[in-house]
Amino acid sequence: MSKQPSITSTQRVVDLLRRGEPNQMVKVQGWVRTKREMKSLAFVEVNDGSSLQGLQVVLDPLALPNYEAVLRDLNTGTSVTVHGELAASQGKNQRIELRAQTLEVWGTADLETYPLQKKRHSFEFLRTIAHLRSRTNTLGAVFRVRNTCANAIHQFFQERGFLWVHTPIITTGDCEGAGEQFIVTSLDLNRLPLTPGQQVDYTQDFFGQPTYLTVSGQLEAEIMAMAFSNVYTFGPTFRAENSNTSRHLAEFWMVEPEMAFCNLDGDMDLAEAFLKHIFRTVLETCPEDMAFFDQRIDNTVLATAESILSHSFERITYSDAITYLEKTDRVFEYPVAWGLDLQSEHERYLAEDLFEKPVIVTDYPKEIKAFYMRLNDDHKTVAAMDILMPKIGEIIGGSQREERLTVLEARMQVQDLNPHDYGWYLDLRRYGTVPHAGFGLGFERLVQFITGMTNIRDVIPFPRTPLNAEF
Ligand code: 4AD
Ligand code: MG
Questions:
Q1: Residue 306: in which H helix or E strand, if any?
Q2: Distance from the CA of 374 to the center of ligand 2, in angstroms?
Q3: Residue 1 clears pLDDT 50, i.e. is over it
């Protein structure tokens, strides 16, 4: 008979740890984390990824026919199926344990070469074995929290009647106008077809025109909001910005709600309720993982999450932010002046030191923001909002959109955008235009903030950064 893992009758370790009862017959499958051999017994901890803690399995030579042979194989990393009976544990680290009646080894892991031994490894080292690092306590906890955040995001919007819309990954536009796009082409780069003027002849390319990986689904989300009122996107976005920092990825996930009949105040209210909902859900759903982050990664994460839930976010204008930054004795690397963009150090000063909580900065100078943001009555600023978090800086960027056709056309002209490329975007203003607003949340920055992980490369399974695209 061939060995076939049976999935249907397998119990998850997390469920057994929470609700398992003595005398219950169970089957678990997973990977050995640790093995302890006593004189007449052995203990192995089996982890199936469902929780931080594994299930303690007791191996008794009297109960297990192949005891000696099995025990030799049970190094860290070995995959096993265990059948047996749950029993109240004598040990103080767990309520319940599994007394094995049969134990089957699927694949062994060599003690000498398996890189994940019991000792603590640096995150830098773990990045070099990214195909194995999800089996560690920290990365396991990160990816469970990440999953809970994703679920909470869908739950938040679905409960409020928002439609999840799928915007294209391959686009022809540059939403943010920052020129940080990756080109998508099927041309042979060693033999590029050229026009008589020696430019690349994109009419011979796959789409007959230049195309890029999207930097944001916002403009397409606006199309959908003009039909469904409230929509959101949740998908990968790509930026070829050469920033080798702990907060930048070349491929990251973004959540972008877009609301028709909504102004900047409504946008900020939604963003605040949205973030609070995610924090609340993570605290309720992942208490063990969050306690782990608090103990092992950053001893402020639990207090920070609680404080976010119990305080309202500070809301200040960009002009006030500049005044605060000019008044402080703090020495910054980058200059502060009205008209200059806020740098990460300025953002962190506001959120971390001055207000000690999330800060929403509104009404930025129009010159430093994208063309689609709604011009304020002062004609100098636009209805933009950035949400700044302690330690991370900007986590959300959003705005009310320019819904007035003539004002939008004028703004596009100033920013040198060709109205022919944006005919469809202008049509939204020609036919049934309404005030509307939205924002984009950087999903990895959110997970970073919640878990206290210092490097963004450690909150996404397969990070893409300058000079790094493994897998
Ligand atoms: O502020 P951004 O550029 O806003 C937009 O793209 C708008 N179109 C969103 C909208 O209004 N619908 O990006 C939004 C967020 C940032 O606040 C940041 O959290 C995250 O995306 N982000 C990045 N995260 C990781 N790596 C990068 N390189 C990022 N660039 C932006
Ligand atoms: Mg931004």
A1: helix 301-310
A2: 15
A3: no
Cα–Cα distance, 138 to 135 (Å, whole number): 9
Q: List pLDDT tens digits, range 413-435.
A: 999 999 998 999 999 999 999 99
pLDDT surpasses 50 at 7: no
Cα–ligand 2 centroid distance for 206 (angstroms) = 31
Residue 71's contacts (CB-CB under 8 Å, 6 or more residues apart) are 35, 37, 42, 59
Burial of 92 (0-12, 13-18, 19+ CB in 10 A): exposed
CA of 269 to the centre of ligand 2 (A): 18
- Segment 345-374 shows an average pLDDT of 97
Single-letter amino acid code for the residue at 270 = L
- Residue 8 clears pLDDT 80, i.e. is over it: no
Q: Which ligand is nearest to the CA of 439?
A: 1
Which residues have a Cβ under 8 Å from the Cβ of 193 and sit 6 or more positions away? 187, 200, 201, 204
Nearest ligand, CA of residue 440? 1
> Taking a C-beta distance cutoff of 8 angstroms, is the pair 350, 361 a contact?
yes
Describe the strand order of the beta sheet including 170-171 as a list of residue ranges: 170-171, 211-213, 183-184
Dist. CA 463–CA 471, nearest whole Å: 10
Q: Please tell me the pTM assigned to this model.
A: 0.96
CA pair distance 269, 263, nearest whole angstrom: 10
Tokens of 193: 């077809």
Give per-residue pLDDT as tens, 90-100: 988 899 999 99
